[in-house]
# Entry
Amino acid sequence: MLLSKKGDQMYNQWLNVLKSSPLFKDIPESNLNAMLECLKPAKKEYQGREIVALNGSPFTGIGIVACGSVALTRETFSGNRIILEILGPKDIFGEMVAFSHNQTWPMTVIAHEDCCLFFLPAKKVLGNCSNICQAHSSLIMNVLNILSDKALLLSKTIEHLSARSIRGKLSSYLLEEFRQRGDGYFKLGLKRNELADYLGIPRPSLSREMANMKRDGFIDYDGLWVKINDVIQLEQILE
# Structure
């Protein structure tokens, strides 16, 4: 389904989500209306666990999550699936491919739950539109800013995975959550199995190590809520 004058009702339904996406930051709503008419993003709906895009399949455009959530995943040679990131409303994915000569999906995208997605054609995103040229320049700049932020996030993920032990990986992840939130008591953004996939740790090993860290007094937890008892102790694990 494409956005067009015939689809005004559907377009208005998702307008608040689309304009709050970092992809359209600082673009006035009046220009955004005209830009979407030019870009004509495809709207698609998926049920939970349904495959959105397979690793190596043809690239279909920059995705925007309008509702629900998707998981960006990678398969290992042993057949296990590792969750790289879970994205919710306003988040985007596939922006790195838009600037690449290799127009194939570099990961498998799966509907984490029932979701509605919009796909923006890469060629139109990178092209020029004579009617809204200033807004289009802002769009391209937003894509570049997002790419920079994703590169920094990737470096953090590599930092977690490079820790020598399971306790080190967990400590690195928890310390980063602490730095971002500025509070030693927070709710994990990932479920236990998702966190295990993200850190490349078997689920039983992760649960066992969290229990050991709680026993040793480093952390306390109840479900997804975690309390860091001593930040310095966690930092010393990484030394």
User: Anything to note?
Assistant: The two ends are 53 Å apart (CA to CA). Residues 217 and 229 are 7 Å apart (CA to CA). The longest strand covers residues 81-87. Confidence is low (pLDDT under 50) at residues 1-8.
